[in-house]
Amino acid sequence: MQNRQRSGFSGPAIKSLIGSKYFGLLLTAVAMTALASSSWMDSPAAVAPLAMPATMAAPVVAEIPAAAPVPVAEVLRSPVEQASIALSQIEIVVRRNDTLDGIFRRLKLNLDDLAALRAEPALRESLDVLRPGDAIHLTHMNGDVQSFVRRLNETETLSVTRENDGFRSNIIEEPLETRVAHGYGRIDSSLFEAADEAGISDQTAMTLAGIFGWDIDFVLDIRHGDEFLVTYEQIWQSGRYLRDGEIIAAQFINGGRVFRAVRYQLPDGSKSYYTPDGRSMRKAFLRAPVEFSRISSRFNPGRMHPILNRIRAHKGVDYAAPTGTPVRAAGDGRVVTRGMKGGYGRVVVLEHGNGISTLYGHLSRFAANVNVGRRVTQGEVIGYVGMSGLATGPHLHYEYRVNGAHVNPQRVKFADASPVGADLRDDFVAKTAPELAELELLERVRVASIN
Q1: CB atoms inside a 10 Å sphere around CB 128
Q2: What is the 3-state secondary structure (H, E, C) of 243-289?
Q3: pLDDT tens across 293-324, in order?
Q4: Which of 18, 45, 86, 350 matches a 20 to 30 Å C-alpha distance to 98?
Q5: What is the chain's Cα-based Rg?
């Protein structure tokens, strides 16, 4: 008789195992292995039941019809996982002329849900006022809205969730936090490069230039080695930096001349910058009414005209700048001319009182709200750089006139704006003293680092 080598357990071993407490676990493992087998799922065969010892009850086995096998992945998922699969998440970016009704119809969402949301008086305005670019986050199940989230403003977010008895809304608040920061820079080539190296944003650098722009020409007057100190606000939210805020106090050293400015809020709520002794940093007129790259032609009574090719006095200053660069009113005034005027092309003339007027020529277009007779404020955009009229390239032609006579705008000494009133002097000193003291401390640190 041929001897056959058997693998596995011997008969006594099997009997011992069946009688052990681990037999149930073994059955479970065998069942799971069979369930995970794709070949078993593809060809479900009849399986003869195992003979059970008389002392053991036969386990209850759920009968799975052979014609509709349940996918393994679905069997293994928890109820929460299976519910989440049915949810669809959508992020909508609001387009021009979008309405919630239109969005719901476009996405085939339940309009009854929209009606239920809008039925809440506290929600109606938050839902109906949509702005292009707004983001709306929705989850739905077969078109039934489960949650609705949209940011209302910088600090508030509307969150709506479906519950058994309807929708529940909540306003999530994320307040802004203002922190004080300090910066120091030394100019090697430009203010913006120095600011960038100091970790200061372009926004703050531009504000700095605006504060001292009446005393310093940041295109022509900046020198290698010029330095600045600045105390400014940073805006944070939930531990995240958002942007720079206002400048609190600043110092600029230009060619050895020291300029200082501090912010002060007037009783009407407006804010402006003043010298430590209360004189306004503003002057009656801007030194340059446009952000320019260079001066292409200076005030020159004997200039050779580049197009007419003959001596023709240049009674203003030409600021070269890209087409479309905003042109700003040099001072408060009234529009007396707006239109085409010979070689000037498109031109605006402002009258400022006391016999002073300013002219802005070669514009590409006018600002929409600038009309003859309208009053404008200093710094308000009145037009845009172009090359209309007699011009060889895009630039602003700017003239400054006193009683009809042309004056070099780069040489005229502008009057200061109104200083802090005598009735506000004590308040000004009390509120600005701590900020100026902090600026002085930064100056001492700067000097100490040099020495």
Answers
A1: 11
A2: EEEEEEEEEEEECCEEEEEEEEECCCCCEEEECCCCCECCECCCCCC
A3: 667 666 556 554 455 455 456 678 898 899 99
A4: 86
A5: 39
Convert the pLDDT of each residue in 114-163 to its tens digit: 898 888 877 887 787 888 988 999 999 999 999 999 998 899 999 999 99
CA angle 328, 304, 382 (to 5 degrees): 10
- Specify the pLDDT at position 124: 81
pLDDT confidence bin for 32, thresholds 50/70/90: very low
Tally Cβ neighbours within 10 Å of residue 369: 11
Q: How many CA atoms does the CB half-sphere of 70 hold within 13 Å?
A: 11
Q: How far apart are CA 51 and CA 67, in angstroms?
A: 27
The CATH number corresponding to 294-407 among 3.40.50.1970, 2.60.40.1120, 2.70.70.10, 3.40.190.10 equals: 2.70.70.10
Is the Cβ–Cβ distance between 331 and 404 less than 8 Å?
no
DSSP SS3 for 57: coil
Sequence-distant (6+) residues with CB within 8 A of 376 are 329, 332, 333, 334, 335, 350, 370, 382
**Residue 155 token pair:** 């600090």
What ranges make up the beta strands (E) of 56-124? 87-93
d(CA 93, CA 101): 15
- Helices assigned H by DSSP within 129-241: 191-197, 202-212
CA distance 293 to 229: 25
Q: Closest Cα to residue 327, out of 338, 315, 342?
A: 338
Q: Where are the domains of the chain?
A: 83-173, 176-282+416-451, 294-407
Q: Across the chain, how many H-helices and E-strands are there? A: 11, 20
Q: Which amino acid is at 118?
A: R
CA dist 383 → 308, 319, 394 (Å): 26, 14, 13
Give the CATH number of domain 176-282+416-451; options: 1.10.10.10, 3.10.450.350, 3.50.50.60, 3.40.50.720: 3.10.450.350
Identity (one letter) of the amino acid at 430? A
The answer to whether 392 and 318 are in contact (CB under 8 A) is no
Q: What is the C-alpha separation between 326 and 383, in angstroms, rounded?
A: 6
